[in-house]
Amino acid sequence: MNKKIMSWSIVASFAGFLFGFDTVVISGADKALQILWDSSDFFHGSVVMAMALWGTVIGAIFGGIPTNKIGRKSTLLIIGVLFSISALGSSLANGPWVFAFFRFIGGLGIGASTIAAPAYISEIAPAKDRGRLVGLYQFNIVFGILSAFLSNYLLSDIGENAWRWMLGIQVFPSIVYTILVFYIPESPRWLLTQSRTDEARVILDKINSKEDVQSVIDNVHEDNKNNSSDENIFMKKYRFPLILVFLIAAFNQLSGINAFLYYAPRIFGEAGLGAKTALLSSIGIGFINLIFTLIGVYLIDRLGRRKLMIFGSLGYIFSLAMVAVSFYLSWTGMAVPMFLFVFIASHAIGQGAVIWVFISEIFPNHLRASGQSFGSSVHWVLAAIIPSMVPILFSNFGVGNVFSFFAVMMVFQLVFVLFMMPETKGISLENMNANLNK
What we know:
Layout lengths: L2 H23 L4 H7 L4 H9 L1 H12 L1 H6 L2 H21 L3 H29 L5 H26 L6 H7 L2 H11 L6 H6 L3 H11 L2 H17 L12 H16 L2 H14 L4 H25 L5 H24 L6 H27 L6 H30 L1 H21 L9 H9 L1
């Protein structure tokens, strides 16, 4: 693989590290913040804990605009600035509303990153390596999640303001990422859609042979010629890709993954584990997530997207059903953590490895950011709603019933994968559009 493509992909995918870290770091401050500000379950869940997710929804809905208008690289730079401001501001907050405001800013960065980073990587990657290169984004998400769990554990005993250090430490990787983005080029496919062919050719010359450069330029120009700039993703010709993106994004959250990541220590506490053991089990979740994401990224261009989704769906159904049974029968000790380890492994090798790759592949170049924005918006609306309801759902319906619901949703996901989801492995982005339109 071309070293430049790899290095640029690694830098862009590091937005995923900030995404993962920012999403999960709040779990270590969960109970401390509720006690500090004496918040009700509703206020704590929907404002203090979920405000970043509402920011993510806005970032996902509108992140396609700068990604299309000013380019993938410029949007990635803005994302780095947003993460830096959020980390510093939330760590210094003196009240729940100020805290929520800065968490909201970080959420904007997360939402926009799920559009700009996968789009950028998919547009510089050769078709045969696109799955694992875009998969670097997901790898960095879970690496960020593991780092946040580990950081929370190491900082948990430093005093009553430990939560400030947990949140503030993210400012350092955010600044490093922002600096690194200055040194990557703009996406050549985006430049071609803006009729900046000479600039695109300079970048393509660095990563392709002369024959491949001209082939890419010709294919993109042909794609642009066949698709009007006035089109949008809600037109009838794009209905099938739109449905695919909606379903894969919705099922991702209906597995309960974000609800679990946000409240892992609390769920382990409900299962009878002590506070310190709960934090350690959360670190175990991070390691399992990382290992199986690596396996998923390794296999995604070998086995394909559909097979990984089938394996993941089966693992989801088994593990979520067993977690529910564990709570129904009041199993204590390590039963719940062990089944949740299987759940995380199933997510990592299936939905985790596939979702951002798949969404970045199935819309044409001129609509890729809009398609990413739609898929990310569906994902993050549900990611905001479900975790914000978790404290109330656990209190009113019981943990077992909540996990039973997630298990049933994964049965429906398996049906979707078996009967609707197409395989996208090894197909060029331009050919993908033609195939799906048929």
